[in-house]
Structure formats: structure tokens, C-alpha cells
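Hey, sorry to bother you again with one of my protein questions. I've been puzzling over a protein and I'd love to understand its fold better. Take your time with it, there's no hurry, and the full record follows here:
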Amino acid sequence: MKLSTDIIAEELRVFDAVFKDSVKSHTPLLDRIMRYVVRTKGKQLRPMFVILSAKLTGQVTDATYRAASLVELLHTASLVHDDVVDESAERRGFFSIYALWKTKISVLVGDYLLAKGMLLSLDNNDFTILQIMSRAVKQMSEGELLQMEKSRSLNIDEETYFTIIRGKTASLLASACSAGAFSATNNEEMSEKMRQFGEYVGIAFQIKDDLFDYGTDDVGKPTGNDIKEKKLTLPLIYTLSKADKATKRELIYIIKNQNRIKSKIAFIIDKVQSAGGITYAEQKMNEYRDKALSIIHEFPDTPVRQTLEDLVRYTTDRKK
């Protein structure tokens, strides 16, 4: 589906200027890298959620633009650090910071982005917004570490999976919506309502990402990347929970020892599809999407609400 952001076109233009200004550095190397970061930034979904959450609940303020910039700074910092951890050479179709400038500089760049985000809030007395976003950074780290710990033993049940993705993915989107609402209302109850909305969207978003690994008519050719990285995601967790002992043992053996062999990856994908793992994950994804939509349907039907609803549907209907 094509996503229209006409309703916030002017706000996105202002955000863009605030974000560019917020990453500037007097150190030539760092400033060069920051210009590269600005040039290669992605779809800006999280800033959109900040701005739309503000417009849904009240009026966009200067604090809204700072909150949108803060969430983008934190998200970019997490991606820069992720690429170091994963030794990833590519990000959003461009060379990653890690590929171009290697480990030491990448780690420092990530740290710089985190520091710039904190200062943007502190220098403007946005203490509550900084608190909201700092909680997300803590939860992201906890989610990633829990996933690493559980991946070693391949011991992840459905409850643990949702704990992991609630932390590593949903927390940042939840905080973006929460911060957006607070920037417009200074109302903690409204901020919490939008935090819950964002968490539901974030969970649906991550399940969609996990489905790309297995491929359906909607998302194209299976990639099998999660299998190669020994990550247990919802379609596979469901399949393992329904498999007999022998099949389960075989699947876990392949994930542990044969996860780079194409024919073995294809075997796992086939088992997941035939066991109903894809269907089950899609059903769960749609449940969380609908929970999110039910929250914003408590607000009047306006073009802003419709755009936010379109953005929610985009996260689950997207092709990549």
C-alpha cells in the first residue's frame, strides 16, 4: 500500500530541519558522518508516529519536534550499534557506518547520537519526554540481551518471544507515541494511552518483520536470515510447540548445526508453512493491529486519525 503523509507534510519539513540541526558537529570527521546519516535515513516512521500522536491528542509544539528528533536520534544510534554487533555491511540499501568507518568510529558515532538526543531534551527542559525515551533505550537493551541469551539454548516459548519483542522493537514505537501525546497535552493519562497504542503497533510491526523470513504470497521470496542467525521467531516457535518429539529434535539440530545449508533452511521453511506457523503468526499480528486501531477509534474521526490508521495498516501490509 502507498502511504500518504500529506496531512503532516509541513510538520515533517520542520522536523527535518530540527533533526539536521540536532546532529551537527564541530568535529570535521563527525560532521561528515552525520551528513551521511541524514542522507541515508529511512522512512521516518517513528517521527511520523510522534507528530500524528501529538496532532491526534492536541496541538503540535516545539517539544513535539524535539521529541521526533530524539526518537530518530535514538533509533539511528541503535542501528549504528546493531550493525557493529551484527558486522553488517549494509543498511537501508546503503553502506552501513560500520562498513565505511569500522568498529571504533561506529561505536563512538552511536554514543554521540545518544548524547545529542539527551542534550536536545535536557537543554530544553523536556525532562518527562527524556524519561519516556530513556525507558525505551533500557528496554531495547534488555530485549536484545534476552534474545541473545535464549538463542544460545534455543529455549524460547511464545511468552518469552513477546517479552523480547516488546522490549527490543515495540518499546521505541510505544515511547514515540507516548512522547508525542505528552508534548501536545502534558497529560500523563493521555501519554499512557498512546504508549499502549504504540506498543501494540510495534509488536505487529515485529511479527511482520519475522514473517518476511518465511515468505508468503504477500512478502515474496523467503530469506531464511533468522534461521541462519539461530533466531527463534513466532512462526517457528509455534511450529516447534506443535511438532512431535522427533520432528522437534530434527528442526533444532538443523538450526544449531546446519543453519547455512540452503536445502536445510528450505526444509524448515516448508515445515513451518505446513504446520500453520505462518497463518498463526499472521493471526497474532492482526490481533495486535486491531488492538491498536481500537485505541485510536476512541478519538473523533478526523483526517489525522485516518492518516494514523493508514500508518498502522502500512506496518502490517508493507512488502519490505
Remarks:
- The two ends are 11 Å apart (CA to CA).
